[in-house]
Amino acid sequence: MTIGVRRRMGVEERRQQLIGVALELFSQRSPDDVSIDEIASAAGISRPLVYHYFPGKLSLYEAALKRASEDLAGRFAEPREGPLGARLLRVMRRFFDFVDEHGPGFSALMRGGPAVGSTATNALIDSVRQAAYVQILSHLRVEDPPARLELVVRSWISLAESTALIWLDGRRIPRGELEVQLVHDFAALAAVSAAQDEEMGTLLRGILKEEPADGPFADLVTRLISLAS
Amino acid sequence: MTIGVRRRMGVEERRQQLIGVALELFSQRSPDDVSIDEIASAAGISRPLVYHYFPGKLSLYEAALKRASEDLAGRFAEPREGPLGARLLRVMRRFFDFVDEHGPGFSALMRGGPAVGSTATNALIDSVRQAAYVQILSHLRVEDPPARLELVVRSWISLAESTALIWLDGRRIPRGELEVQLVHDFAALAAVSAAQDEEMGTLLRGILKEEPADGPFADLVTRLISLAS
């Protein structure tokens, strides 16, 4: 029966099926806890046949992670239309969708661990961070970012990761609240930098000028002023 | 001569010396690039003698990392006196001192890598994060933090890590500016959360009430209001 299935699927088709099955299992539980036997069983094939397509669990894990990385990077794509705050909020919604779908696997990967700290997995994580960074700069219409803007954008990306990880650990705060919060956090970190540096101040004023009075950035400024008074 | 030195030092003394020598080398270059031969040579002993005290490079690396972790956690200790903003700024100075002293090793560790992603090293990193978290809560005089405060504190700790890592990559921004910026970032992230949640609002107002008019928190609010107007 195994051979029958094998004959019906081509090599690449079978590889893609195995990656999909593995990604689903790696998403639901820590990858350390998923065995090749389970993957074989979920794919309806024998254990030796899995090894025929992937030399070991790590290579299957890396292939699954590559697919997940491409999926996540794809969710950052957002048309360059309308207010920036609203665009960022839509991306945050899709980011939390992804985190929600891959919860335990995302946690295990980002917290590091014996099976997942390889050079290849770190390179994939960095490639997703870089994709996020490039997207944000293109929305800000900045080609050659000053060091302080690069710091704000990259450190905010790491803040989004840690916020998602903390959310996954118990889900004690509604994710919709955190999606808005991260948009506000971006504005807040940019504002802190702009408060100290003139170049950042000019840049931020240019961005805020185009934001609508009912957008998330304007909302934050109003709330902060009321909090401070 | 090697035996002569060996006779003069006790086992624990020799272990501590090797840890110190290794930590210095692991701090100056990525731990992957440091060999046992180099450690032996810097300690003035033979390679087999190093293996007599530590079974391999990983165990020596873990011992060096343990010492560095305790050193860093010790720098978080700050007397509960005077305004909070000034206390946090002093801790940030000591944090950047540490990052400065251990630059390449700190980067390699926090960015992950084949030799450094072990369960033991991850546990040490987590223990330092936890020490920072406990210190901050104790300064805020909060024993049982609501989920939103825990999120603000823990995500700010990860922001401090990523800010330090980005600073190390080229040192294009003066560290003194980033020390102040991280204090402001803490206030800003707390303010964003407080702007959405009443419990956080009450907590933050209580903290800000005790801050002096010339402290870093008051400074930030003044700058933000001028930026928004």
From TrEMBL, chains A, B:
Domain HTH tetR-type residue range list: 12-72
DNA-binding region: 35-54
Keywords in alphabetical order: DNA-binding, Transcription, Transcription regulation
Superkingdom, taxonomy of origin: Bacteria
Gene3D superfamilies referenced in this protein's UniProt entry, alphabetically: Tetracycline Repressor, domain 2
Pfam families named among the record's database cross-references: TetR_C_46, TetR_N
Name of protein: TetR/AcrR family transcriptional regulator
Species this chain originates from: Streptomyces coerulescens
